[in-house]
Amino acid sequence: MREEVPDIEPETRAVGDTAAAETTDTTPASLPTYTRSRFLEASTIGLGAAIGAVVTLPVLGFMVLPSFTNLEEGEADLGPIDNFPKGTFVIATYLASPTAGEVSRRTAFVRNNGPAESGEPSFTILYNRCVHLGCPVQPNGPIDEAAKRDVNGVELRSVLAQSFGCPCHGALYDAEGNRQAGPPVRSMDRYTFSIKDGRLVLGELYAVGNVSGTGANATISKYPWSTPGTHVDGVEAWLYPIVPSQVTG
Known about the structure:
The protein is α+β, with helices and mostly antiparallel strands. The protein has two helices and 13 strands, in the order ααβββββββββββββ.
C-alpha cells in the first residue's frame, strides 16, 4: 500500500520584498535646517553685540586707561621773576614740551603776590582750563596787547583781571580761582612753582577744593590733580575713587 505524500506548498516571496532586501538604502540622512526667522535672529544678536563692543570699549578705555598711564609734564621756565610785577596778573603762554611743538602749548595766569611771611616769594599761578569740562578760561579785564613780550619762547601779556570766566557754560571764578557761579565742582587748578636763580619755574598741577584769604596769605585746600568735573572734597569725592594721572591739555 502506497503512503500518501502530504502536499507541500511551494515557497513564495513577494517581488517587492526581494528588491527591498537586496537593495542597499543610499538615501542620505536629513540635515538640520534653519528657518529664515532663526537666521535673522542670530544675525541681529551678532550685529548688536558688535555695535555694543564698538561703543563700549572706547568709553571704558577713556575712563580707565588714564589711571594707569603716566603723562606728567616736566618743569617750565617762565623767565626772571622781574617779568611779573607785583599785584598784577600776567598771561603766560609757553610750550610744555618744545619737542612736541604746538600741541603742548599751555597758558597760565600768574600773579606776583610779593614776599610771604617767611620772606620767600609768593605767586598765584592758575591753570587756564575750566574745571567743568576743560574749556579755556578767559580773564575778565583788559589785556595790554601793546606790551606783549616774548621772552625765550614764553609769551607774556599783562591783564587787569579781578575774575575769570569760561565762555562755554558760564562758569565764573574770582581772582583766587574760587568758583562763584556756573557748573564747576571745585576751584581752578594751580601750579606748584619754585624760584631757581631768580627765575620762575612751574612744577606740577594740583587740584584745589577752596581758597580762603588772598595772595600770600591765602590758605589753599590742596589735592592731587584730577580731571575736570571731578570732585576732590566733600561727600561727592567718594563717587570718584580713581584719581587719574596728570593729563593736561
